[in-house]
Amino acid sequence: MKIVRWMGIALGMAVLSACSGDKDAPEAAVPVLVVHPAGVSGQAPGVYPGEIRARQESTLSFRVGGELVARAVDAGQHVRRGQLLAELDVADFALQARASKAQLAAAQADLVRARDDHRRYETLAAQQLVSRSTLDQQTAALKAAQGQVDAARANLDVLDNQAGYAQLHAPADGVITHREAEVGQVVSAGQAVFELAADGAREVLIALPEATIGDHAVGEAVQVELWNRAGRMLPGTLREIAGAADAQTRTYAARVSLDDAVPDGVELGQSARVYSRAGRNGTLQLPLAAVQRGDDGSASVWVVEPASSRLKAVPVTVGAYGSDAVPVHTGVSVTDWVVAAGGHLLRSGQPVVAVDRQNRPVLKPVAAAAGSAAPKGGE
């Protein structure tokens, strides 16, 4: 109610200014509260709010545990593939590697002795000075010594790998969206340290209600409207639908891929709307104050034209009035921005600043042309 009252005051002041101001001065745009036609549930059929996300999102973690001793990046920072992100304390790995090297050296010494013994027993066996079974025992001892060397060398390789795993590198170019650990913290293997949104394709994450999930399918063509580019539709495709509903919200997570290149200035986490033709058969409704009645009983609404931010009267067919809303059968679509209040103070062609119920502009303002003649009102 406060927003509606504020809109009325602003519109009244604009009318008084128009009557007393210079006729040659550019016409000032007045703020108007706008809404999208909604369904009976309050959600416009086929319209789903979403969030810009990266096509590839990765949780980055260490393959070994230890104390985090260095962190080279922070949330929001862009990184390159192979860039060092964080590092664990490697003191324990160094000690283990020294012990493993000592074990390898001892195993190699045993192998040298076993080879010498085996050659000596081969000579004695050829002279029939020792039995065949004794030579077989020396052959088995030689193989065991070789196995000990192989095991010690493999253990050293594992420790060398673990020392390398103590450094966390970026797997791809992208942006660090979250940081989950800090220097001094002891992390376990596989524990999340960073979230990385890879460069490249962008998508819109939406939630499909279970009541309409049967209307949608992977591959469906949709339209995407970015919040900072209201009125501009981008083609998209429904790429993925979750196989099960969320236990709390009872909605199905879905991802919409953008068919065209993402415009400059579109950042991760920004708001978007996805428009789908599926499930649009529900009845739309508007606030009572949005519908204007003519002397002949005809009904119309004010629609803001996105390209010019000017008003246009659109005839509509309405149903029986409710306590606070009226069903609209024809004339408007779910993508239209319809003036929700103060319509009796407006006129066709008037420049406006369209704002939502949070007093946020929903369309980019277009400067009124100086000296332009105002269209005739009365619609």
From TrEMBL:
<dbReference type="InterPro" id="IPR058624">
    <property type="entry name" value="MdtA-like_HH"/>
</dbReference>
<dbReference type="InterPro" id="IPR058792">
    <property type="entry name" value="Beta-barrel_RND_2"/>
</dbReference>
<protein>
    <submittedName>
        <fullName>Efflux RND transporter periplasmic adaptor subunit</fullName>
    </submittedName>
</protein>
<keyword id="KW-0175">Coiled coil</keyword>
<feature type="coiled-coil region">
    <location>
        <begin position="97"/>
        <end position="162"/>
    </location>
</feature>
<dbReference type="Pfam" id="PF25876">
    <property type="entry name" value="HH_MFP_RND"/>
</dbReference>
<dbReference type="GO" id="GO:0015562">
    <property type="term" value="F:efflux transmembrane transporter activity"/>
</dbReference>
<dbReference type="InterPro" id="IPR006143">
    <property type="entry name" value="RND_pump_MFP"/>
</dbReference>
<keyword id="KW-0732">Signal</keyword>
<dbReference type="InterPro" id="IPR058625">
    <property type="entry name" value="MdtA-like_BSH"/>
</dbReference>
<feature type="domain" description="CusB-like beta-barrel">
    <location>
        <begin position="206"/>
        <end position="260"/>
    </location>
</feature>
<comment type="similarity">
    <text>Belongs to the membrane fusion protein (MFP) (TC 8.A.1) family.</text>
</comment>
<dbReference type="Pfam" id="PF25917">
    <property type="entry name" value="BSH_RND"/>
</dbReference>
<feature type="domain" description="Multidrug resistance protein MdtA-like alpha-helical hairpin">
    <location>
        <begin position="100"/>
        <end position="157"/>
    </location>
</feature>
<feature type="domain" description="Multidrug resistance protein MdtA-like barrel-sandwich hybrid">
    <location>
        <begin position="60"/>
        <end position="193"/>
    </location>
</feature>
<dbReference type="GO" id="GO:1990281">
    <property type="term" value="C:efflux pump complex"/>
</dbReference>
<dbReference type="Pfam" id="PF25954">
    <property type="entry name" value="Beta-barrel_RND_2"/>
</dbReference>
<feature type="signal peptide">
    <location>
        <begin position="1"/>
        <end position="20"/>
    </location>
</feature>
